[in-house]
Amino acid sequence: MATDRVDLVIVVNGEATTIDAQESEELRAVVELALTRTHNEGRPLDEWELRDSSGAILDLNRKVGSFDFRPGTTLFLSVRAGIGG
Fold first, then answer.
1. Buried b / exposed e along 28-52 (16+ C-beta atoms within 10 A)
2. Is 0.85 topped by the overall pTM?
3. Where are the domains of the chain?
4. CA 50 to chain centre
5. How many angstroms separate the CA atoms of 23 and 6, rounded?
6. How confident is the model at residue 28, as a pLDDT?
7. How far apart are CA 54 and CA 68, in angstroms?
8. CA–CA distance, 26 with 14 (Å, rounded to integer)
9. CATH ID of 5-79, from 3.10.20.90, 3.40.50.850, 1.10.760.10, 3.40.50.360
């Protein structure tokens, strides 16, 4: 059975949250929800970067479905290097 959703685990500063993402939405929507759920809303979205398990930075403007994530894929969200805090 085909589905248009995938569960992603987003680790924000060491805190994991699971997001039920729609494959048709931009990855930025997933990131915004993860930041809200982990109470990390003090910085603008452009100060964050999302990486996969190999360390590659993911383009937040791409659709979730374009990445072919498997259910339960873990991604890592952190403040960009060089941003003071």
1. bebbbbbbeebebeeeeeeebbbee
2. yes
3. 5-79
4. 6
5. 7
6. 97
7. 15
8. 23
9. 3.10.20.90
Over the chain (85 residues), what is each successive 10-residue block's mean pLDDT? 85 95 97 96 93 97 96 96 64
**Token output for 28:** 């930025």
The position carrying tokens 């498997």 is: 70
Strand, coil or helix: 20? strand
17: Cβ contacts below 8 Å, ≥ 6 apart? 9, 10, 34, 37, 38
- Residue 84: the pLDDT is 57
Assign 84 to helix, strand or coil.
coil
Gap between the Cα atoms of 57 and 39, Å rounded: 22
